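Aim 2 progress update. The chain analyzed this quarter is reproduced below.
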Amino acid sequence: MKTSDKRVKRPNKNRDLGASDLDHIVLDFEDNNLASLLFGQFDQHLAMLEQRLGIEAVARGNQLQMKGTEEAIRRGRSALEHLYARLEKGDSIEPGDVDGALRIAAADNQPVAPNKEKSGKLAMATIGTQKKVIQARTPNQDAYIRAMDRSELLFGIGPAGTGKTYLAVAYAASLLEKGAIDRIILSRPAVEAGEQLGFLPGDMKEKVDPYLRPLYDALYDMIPGDKVERAIQNGEIEIAPLAFMRGRTLANAAVILDEAQNTTSMQMKMFLTRLGENSRMIVTGDPSQIDLPGSTKSGLVEALALLKNIESVVTVKFNSDDVVRHRLVADIVNAYDSATKSRG
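Predicted structure tokens:
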């Protein structure tokens, strides 16, 4: 957003006489329609700000008054300015975007903060696909998206709900749309059936689809359904269990291995050595959710240890603060982590 004094007033350092420890600022937004979208239906986005930041936010037309502590006001203003800039570009915003903007704003003054534009505004990493523009909602997501641009082999490690697979599929879809690659290859180990799929009913696609459904879901969220089907039919998009990767060289492709914690040592070595020219490989997984038999070592855990000193291999680690599903999911992750630590 291009900052202008007409649209966004600088904070007025006027102290409320009844609460001397609170700041009170007024923000003006140029476009009434965009301001309405920014505040949300029935001001639901402002309600999120009030709940998350402990501030008072009152909208009158295209004007917003905020009262709260100096730090809370800074975060709220930073988030709103960023969201308004997105609306000016024609993007839509939803409650999840508001939550993401608040998370990024909270990390703005931390030792490892999101990148900024020259204007000083937050510059959260984005991925553009045919159906939507996906934007980082946490500092680690921001680092993850930026790492995709610079690394040919990237590990995204962390709990469920942090966007590891979703962002990887989005990035692959954007590369295919731009013509930077010729195909997308998505894979998962079919651990539950030990990759012995012959006893299941139907053809091979019907046998493996239950294990690969999350990858289909992410694709359909990025690319129109009819285009996904055509791309699968003509080979531009391939979704297959890990066992089908053996003996291949995957060139000019974005290759994603999901649920990698359930690979064996040999499977992981086999997969990593498929990397060909002009390809990007993204490996995602959660080492705390290994479904392999007790005596089998996770190929993901081993690979992280063996490859940690290779400079061109990047690992981004997510935690419960990066969970972007229901907020209860973060509490569930923390509860299980605490139980695991207590057991040693």
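DSSP finds eleven helices and twelve strands in the chain. The longest helix spans residues 70-88. These observations will guide the mutagenesis experiments scheduled for the next reporting period.
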